[in-house]
Amino acid sequence: MIDEQAVGMLLYHISKEVRSQWIEGHIEHYIGLYRNMKDWLNSEVKI
């Protein structure tokens, strides 16, 4: 017999791990976009 509580905990930890990685990936993505925009704005202002 499968211990439903153990399976539930396992799924919860997996989804938590995936979520945190997904969020970190998106934070890095947005930081990169922000830096690119800032560089672009700086170069536009100088011209």
Question: Would you kindly provide a written description of the structure presented here, covering whatever features stand out?
Answer:
With 47 residues, this protein is mainly α. The protein has a domain at 23-47. The protein is 91% helix and 0% strand. The protein is built from one helix and no strands. The longest helix has 43 residues, at 4-46. The protein is rod-shaped and about 70 Å long. The chain starts with a helix and ends with a helix. The mean pLDDT is 90.
Structural class: mainly alpha
H-E order: H
Instruction: Give the uncertain stretches in residue-range form.
Output: none
Largest sheet: none
Q: How much beta, percentage-wise?
A: under 5%
Mean pLDDT: 90
Please tally the β strands and state the result: 0
Rg, nearest Å:
20 Å
Fraction of residues in helix: over 70%
Number of alpha- plus pi-helical segments: 1
Which term fits the overall shape?
rod-shaped
Measure the end-to-end span: 71 Å
